[in-house]
Write a structure and sequence with these properties.
heterodimer, A: 7-stranded mixed sheet, 4-stranded antiparallel sheet, 0% helix
Chain lengths: 113, 110
């Protein structure tokens, strides 16, 4: 398996623009997670899905952030409008069930100027 | 709210030394604990997973222990090598979510 796939790997955008991050989980994994990592706050869980259904979005910082999972092999995280404080590395992760190992993608480094 | 603390924040050792990384968590009601490795600019790689009913797990030169009642886990690395240099993160699973510590930055000097 190719592992968790994320695109793009790097994104530089201007404040106010819309940003869309993409993730393909490992085939057969029922859980998908979106995280944000910064030096100050470490790894923060933004939202997770189980069988394509959003279960907990309490970590989404504000209404500018939204996430979707239209099918078992694809998810998006959208930021509209983007702000400089959104600059971070965004990780997607998946797991088979809640007792199994969690696998992370390589991340998307987002820079908002 | 679960809180995970890792000590030390950074560690520098000479090659060949055995070392221990520490992780503590405030809520002992966990399902499992996972240790990850993160190289600069890369994603997280799972090293070891310990279920709540287990006491330890081993993989090669790595050994992780779990004492759920005291809220502690350790990651033991034997005969460290420069290639072990990375950030090591501990994460506990509760309520279907992993809560992460901020990691220990390990540098193994040749």
């Amino acid at each position: 398996d190719a592992g968790v796939i994320q695109s793009p790997r790097h994104e530089v955008t201007e404040m106010g623009q819309e940003v869309t991050l993409r993730c393909k989980p490992i085939s057969g994994h029922d859980y998908l997670f979106w995280y944000r990592q910064t030096m100050m706050r470490g790894l923060e869980l933004l939202i997770y899905f189980n069988n394509n259904v959003p279960i907990d979005d309490s970590g989404m910082p504000e209404d500018r952030f939204s996430a979707k999972m239209p099918n078992a092999s694809f998810s998006t995280l959208k930021i509209q409008p983007s702000e400089p404080r959104d600059s971070a590395v965004y990780f997607c992760a998946s797991r088979w069930d809640w007792t199994s190992k969690q696998y992370f993608g390589p991340g998307t480094r987002l820079t908002v100027t | 709210k679960q809180e995970v603390t890792q000590i030390p924040a950074a560690l520098s050792v000479p090659e060949g030394e055995n070392l221990v990384l520490n992780c503590s968590f405030t809520d002992s009601a966990i399902y499992n604990l996972q240790w990850f490795r993160q190289d600069p600019g890369k994603g997280l790689t799972s090293l070891l997973l310990i279920q709540s009913s287990q006491r330890e797990q081993t993989s090669g030169r790595l050994n992780a222990s779990l004492d759920k009642s005291s809220g502690r886990s350790t990651l033991y690395i034997a005969a460290s090598q420069p290639g072990d240099s990375a950030t090591y993160l501990c994460a506990v699973m509760g309520n279907y979510k992993l809560t992460f510590g901020k990691g220990t930055l390990l540098t193994v000097n040749p």
